[in-house]
User: Fold these one by one.
Assistant:
Number 1:
Amino acid sequence: MSDSTAPPPQSTRLAVLIPFGIVTLIWGSTWIVITGQLGQVPPSWSVAYRFAIGGAAMLGWALFRRVPLALDARGLGFAAALGLMQFVLNFNFVYRAEIYVTSGLVAVVFALLLVPNALLGRIFLGQRLGRQLLVGSATAMAGIAMLFIHEARVDPGSTTRVLTGIAITLMGVCSASVANVMQGTQTARAYPMASMLGWAMLFGATIDALFAWVTTGPPRFDWSLSYVAGLLYLGLAASALAFTLYFGVIRVIGPAKAAYSGVLVPVIAMALSTVFEGYRWSALAAIGALLAMAGLVIALRARRPNR
């Protein structure tokens, strides 16, 4: 029996760190790209288009690698549930949240994904919770509270909008967390990643399209270069590629540690929000952002949260 206390080999560390780096860079930029998708096309239709592209790309990749596309009844049910939580609820909440608050603030709030991931991982996957993880999470939430206060002071009339945006984001966080924990189960490991993700995205895109049609009417599309380029980036890089890497990491180290990729994502997102959205910083906002990041780093340094 191998020694569980021995550090992982360098190859294993790189197999986790390299995907982490790629996912962080991609998802750090998606928040600002999503803002560009909010225009004449209703958010639900944009979400549907995104995951139709991502799902088709995943199944195409599976065909190229000669991975079986067919799933049994259990696999199809799992893919449908994953699609509902990750590619319907999560992203419809995120797109709508950016109507109310800046993309950088949505990214910071979404970084708290590690909290429900750790809790649900403890309940459903038997992973341990440490004091350091709890302290770090509390510190991060204090930082989020300061960011909210900053937004309310900048524009007192927007308090309701900011609170609405944060609440919608938190609903997206909870939906994403359920999907993350699903990827840590034995059921997820029983099926090829490309096929499972491809069908989950297509199931999600179908539900998104039905929801969009019922709530906003027939499909609408924006043929401008910025919208189409953003849609392709979100569908191919931020969905097909990034989710493959991220869910692969979850299967190796568990959902609690995988959520630590959110430590740097908000930093990238808020920097882009400052440049492109004119996000107004103050001492309170800076301290809040630093607290949020510090709390996440404290949680990151917790010993063996994935055991």
Number 2:
Amino acid sequence: MTSNECVVYDAVVLAGGGARRLGGADKPGVRVGGRALLDRVLGACADARVTVVVAEHRPTARPVRWTREEPPGAGPVAALDAGLRHTAADDVLVLSADLPFLTADTVRRLLTALRAGTVEGALLTDGDGRDQPLVAAYRTAALRRELAVLTADRGGLAGLPLRRLTAGLELTRVPDPVASFDCDTWDDIASARARIREHGHVLDEWISAVKDELGVDLDVDTAALLDLARDAAHGVARPAAPLTTFLVGYAAAQAQGGPEAVAEAARKAAALALRWAQEAQAEQDRPAGPAGTEPTDTGPTDTRSAGTEPTRSGPDAG
């Protein structure tokens, strides 16, 4: 499965629980990089056909379906059962709401591993090799089968650990110590906040946060925009960088275009910035003429033949 394939799956996000190790704080609403943990997870599975969040209703960056386990607080197996009742796809992504580094690429890798053979589930393992059943993709029918077995054996699902459910499944593992990182304590939150501010992550994190905040769902070539900003700053003036990139975005929006429109507007603006820089360099390199005279233009657009007098026009011509 490539990143361009249309993959049909549903997602169930478990966002309940008491967050005892966070002192009872609203864990899904805790912000990392300016975004609620729940919104970060929802962004990673944005292409799910249906996303069900098992928790009390709250504002989210994208629309989802809401449900609750019965009784509330009955545990992850009961919560998963409640979420599955609102899904219909053959495959379902099951996630906790406290995964700050989950990405769409992680989701694709899980679905690819699930569909690579006859397994019934593909789950991440953390840096210590431990299974993470709440960062996983499963065959929906297999989950429903095991839930029915547990209900029949136990008379209900309340209080059951997830390992009782996954023990009956044929699973494959996908190691990923970063995407499997979850935030159970305030130390975990602090570590996550520190990591996204590291040099190698901060720009992508910031762009993702801005897009969420502005409701923008558009993937563009950020390297090209950064190159444009550099050229505008160096070739024109430093304030030209943010203003030019803004105008590029505005022009693409006026054209009602997607990434291609942004790329074309950026190309035109970058070419203009280059021409400005070439003119400035030409002025620096040109020897000064006699006092009161205009120096001969030798820039790249000069079409005069060598040794001829430049043609003048206007009121001073002649």
Number 3:
Amino acid sequence: MLGPVILAASRSDRMRRLMTAAPGTKQVVDRFIPGERVDDIVPVIEGLTGRGLELTMDVVGEDITTREQAAAAREAYLELIDRLKPLELGERVEMSVKLSMFGQALDGGHELALANVRPVVEAAAGIGTTVTLDAEDHTTLDSMFAIHEELRKDFPQTGCVIQAYLFRTEADARRLAADGSRVRLVKGAYKEPAEVAYQQKHEIDKAYVRVLRTLMEGEGYPMIGSHDPRLISIAQELAHRAGRKLDEYEFQMLYGIRSEEHLRLAAEGHRMRVYTAYGTDWYGYFMRRLAEKPANLRFFLRSMVTKG
């Protein structure tokens, strides 16, 4: 299993230095992360929305060790929102945030993360869009869900992410579906122990379908985060059985992965949102993309050999 090895490498400073210095890295990283600054990303946003796609924007960076860094993350999102305002794209471009970036792991981190993310959610609402709280490792989820609940008191459109491989997720899905919130369902990309998460692909896939059925039959807005053709077909069937119209759920996929499928789903009338990351601290995000899909690792190694 290469995934856990790659995830371990994502936390290695030595591997970070080697990867950053490697001559072929930038070309491959650009496939998944199309820019480092807001100026880089605005043309990407205009191009994708012009082709009928929607986006969720992620400013990459998770290794926050100071309150100053957490405040800088908040300001990066506020800068993005400021640049989105004149584009008048509304909910076609939303934001995804990791609460670790806003100081969740620091002393007093729960209150700090809430204080830092609230202005971002408020600013997003001001331009007609919203924010989704990304899920991280299982130890952070109670805090994330509590912050999600608090934000929804004033901004009920605030979304959250749940991960199919965690045992707790079926119960979380039932609660969230009844509550009417926006929920993105993903398989899960963190290395979790067998005590809290399924370890085998077939078990994770079955859990994904069970959770997705709950969301489709509930009162919320499901967001299907998957590139798996089989799960996409199942999602369409579950939506049909639940009597959902095409604008009552959406598909989400990563920028740079199965791009033709993005366009195909949009052409069929589905809401198709592309998870698009940008920023200078790309290493952790990039390594998780390699861990999720062996084909991504083969693509990267082939490019390194070609360009090295």
